[in-house]
Amino acid sequence: MTPDIAPIAWTGDSLRLIDQTLLPARLEYRDVADVDDLVDAIKRLVVRGAPALGVAGALGVVVALRQADRESWDATTRDAAIARIREARPTAVNLAAGVDRVRPLVDEGADAVLAEALAFLDEDVRGNRAIGRHGAAWLTARTGDRPLRLLTHCNAGALATAGWGTALGVVRELHARDRVETVYADETRPLLQGSRLTAWELEQMGVPYYVQPDGAAAGTILGGHVDAAIVGADRVAANGDTANKVGTLAVALACAAAGIPFLVAAPWSTVDLATPDGARIPIEQRAPAEILANGGTPVAPPGARAHNPAFDVTPARLVTALITETGVLEPARGRTPAEEAAEKRERGR
Ligand SMILES: CSC[C@H]1O[C@H](OP(=O)(O)O)[C@H](O)[C@@H]1O
Q: Where does the entry annotate site (Transition state stabilizer) (predicted)?
């Protein structure tokens, strides 16, 4: 399925990425044919968002194999390069899962790996469309037929996936049904994925929205201006605890205090059953300069220290609904991904 906004694609020779650090001012692409380039692109968030990182990981193995052929790497050098891609960012389980999805095919060569990676890309887009349908159905079943006022945090749109989006995929589906009154998009300090990327996507969709400071979210929610919050995820633990962009926990707490739904939209590729709970999810700590400077200009005194976690963890008891491509589970009511996965396996037998 060809996505309308394709943040990641294979050109035949290289991995083509939308350079998300330049949006919304400039829509430019970066063609990556070198492992060092890809690791840099992942670390600098040229490509970002858990599902997008998964596909970048899978296609990144093709990049490594093609480079290994060009530069006559031995297997040890090749495997070390693949490991560097896999470990480029720690929190989104999708990156490792994407590499692991194609890793068994490495000895069959780049073409076999590419076929599997492109199948993975297509699965992600299809899954996101299903997430949109399941999320829209869950919300409309609980809110009647009035248009909804939604709140998002960070960017979980087409740009964060192989296409369509997860949290914004639900917004797109609701918008297609004329069920969105407005969206409050948290700007999402420090890298502004909300004001730069979510706002850009909402403009493309024609959805009315406000950009707001992250610190305004609780007041907007408790002020009665929001019917539901919907966010993405970078890793969902087996018990339903969810890691997402820093500031998400505050949104979830405000939703609980206001008695409105807090929804997480994520494909099963973001669920990590090997991680039992949120305490075991590795949280990426990013550079102090992202906090202490603005566009390279210091904003804090020279001696300032920074605490810059890229993510926080929302406990399952605050997650009203986890929207996946196979349906909706309700962790706050005790339904865990581990239980759901076990039942899916039983049904599959
Ligand atoms: C659809 S998952 C998007 C998820 O990833 C973002 O993190 P980053 O921009 O640092 O890659 C953020 O947590 C989003 O919710």
A: 154
